[in-house]
Amino acid sequence: MPNLSMTVNGKAVQGEVEARTLLVQFLRENLDLTGTHVGCDTSQCGACVVHVNGAAMKSCTMLAMQAEGAEVTTIEGLADGDTLHPMQEAFRNNHGLQCGFCTPGMVMSAIDLVNRNPNPSEEEIRDGLEGNICRCTGYHNIVKSVAEAARVMGS
Amino acid sequence: MYDFNYHKPSSSNAAASAVAGADDGKFLAGGQTLLPTMKQRLAMPSDLVDLAGCDLSGVRVDGDNLVIGAMTTHDAVATSAEVQAHIPGLAALAAGIGDQQVRNRGTIGGSVANNDPAADYPAACLALGATIHTDRRTITAEDFFTGMFDTALDEGELITAIAFPKPAACAYQKFPNPASRYALVGVMVAKTGGGVRVAVTGAGENGVFRAAEIEAALGANFSADAAAGAAVSADGLNSDLHASAEYRAHLVGVMASRAVAAC
Ligand SMILES: Cc1cc2nc3c(=O)[nH]c(=O)nc-3n(C[C@H](O)[C@H](O)[C@H](O)COP(=O)(O)OP(=O)(O)OC[C@H]3O[C@@H](n4cnc5c(N)ncnc54)[C@H](O)[C@@H]3O)c2cc1C
Ligand code: FES
Ligand code: FES
User: Fold this and answer.
1) Is domain B59-165 classified as CATH 3.40.50.300?
2) CATH 3.30.70.380 fits A3-76, yes or no
3) In what order do the strands lie in the sheet with B169-176?
4) B5-50: which CATH topology?
5) Contacts of B12 (CB under 8 A, 6+ apart)
């Protein structure tokens, strides 16, 4: 089986995986980082989004081997000790989640969105979260959360 | 997904040899189409040859052409200063493919090689008169797209880049399927040295095609009304649960007129 090494949430990790192992499986099963969810496994829902070298990607649609040598950040890597990332804090403040299943992917996608566009309009937020599906919230409070986080992240 | 051997060569020559040497080898680009297909066991390659290390990405200007490496992601095309300056309609097309996560991984070479009948790039290639460069030859877009999910590529042939001649103006408009975001109908209108060219994706039974009726109408009078007024036949268009052939024929005219207005 191929050997694999990458940096996850700032720590060097390695493992031996089958070539067909998806990045999300490697994170959840080898590294026990179960914050990254699998909603659909068909590239549609965005529950599995992580950052690979800073960009949001669907970890169910990527082989672990394709992340060889990469810097991966998952939802577990965002908080600084007890201090939540501004995006996490904004989701909490604005009731941006109900069951929470979509939330890790939403937060990771939203951070990429704000990194690309520090001052997004409501329409740009809705557009930018096209790849993330939420069955609970109706999206309004998610959009509010992202707008608030963008203000905080910019200041 | 069945297991396979994974290779990551560091040159396109080595990639082509790795596929040639395998039982049933396939190139892996962004994986945004291939991996879902493998999960469904619709593809079961013995070997995947990852092109990420082959130095095939990037955009450069070569005289009157914009040359885009096969491994350039949709996001890189959408945000490239060169593409925005020379063919803004192509940057806008790339910015409308799927969602941000798909654009961060999916590549132009993978999209063109796959020739999904509802994919966006084939319309740009055909309307702009692009040339597909492979490790063996160059193929015009006209000769390249040969039918639904079918191309002129031979077994194991590798796309290295796609060259787009700069048009005087062009714009792409798509009516996305609200669930998949693929084109129900997408139309690229381009004013080129060879006249007005109009390519339609999402609608044809055999994939992307040029709309002769609209090209003739726009050649005589380049206006949104002329595009909307050109009758497009429903013959040879798809009917499925998303839209009938008649509805698609109507949408072709509407998307073409919006594209003209955006040129
Ligand atoms: C949720 C979702 C939404 C999408 N929406 C859209 C959309 O709106 N519009 C659209 O156009 N597409 C859409 N796509 C498809 C996306 O654009 C894919 O990225 C693209 O079709 C394939 O590119 P890839 O780089 O991922 O190729 P891969 O999946 O890696 O490969 C696809 C095929 O091409 C072959 N191949 C790859 N590179 C080469 C090469 N250089 N030479 C020869 N053969 C090669 C592979 O062997 C494979 O058979 C969507 C995909 C998803 C998952
Ligand atoms: S689990 Fe990856 S997109 Fe749904
Ligand atoms: S909060 Fe339940 S799916 Fe989004």
Assistant:
1) no
2) no
3) B169-176, B183-192, B195-201, B209-210
4) 3.30.43
5) B51, B54, B55, B56, B135, B158, B160
Pairing of the two strands B159-165 and A71-73: unpaired
Tens place of pLDDT per residue across chain B (263 aa): 999 999 999 999 999 999 999 999 999 999 999 999 999 999 999 999 999 999 999 999 999 999 999 999 999 999 999 999 999 999 999 999 999 999 999 999 999 999 999 999 999 999 999 999 999 999 999 999 999 999 999 999 999 999 999 999 999 999 999 888 899 999 999 999 989 999 999 999 999 999 999 999 999 999 999 999 998 999 999 999 999 999 999 999 999 999 999 99
- List the one residue out of B136, B121, B102 whose CA is nearest residue B29: B102
Chain A interface residues (partner B, CB cutoff 8 A)? 2, 18-20, 22, 41-43, 46, 49, 55-58, 61-63, 65-66, 68, 109, 112-113, 128, 130-132
Q: Number of Cβ pairs closer than 8 Å across A and B?
A: 70
CA B201 to chain centre: 9
Please report which ligand is nearest the Cα atom of A47. 2
Binding site membership of A107 for ligand 3 (Cβ less than 6 Å): no
User: Looking at the domain that runs over A86-154, which CATH code has it been given?
Assistant: 1.10.150.120
* The CATH number of domain B169-262 is 3.30.450.20: no
Cβ-based neighbours of A118, under 8 Å, separated by 6 or more: A150, A153, A154
Domain spans in chain A, listed from the N-terminal domain onward: 3-76, 86-154
Cβ contact A20–B2 (<8 Å): yes
**pTM of the predicted structure, to 2 decimals:** 0.97
- Give yes or no for residue A43 CB within 6 A of ligand 2: yes
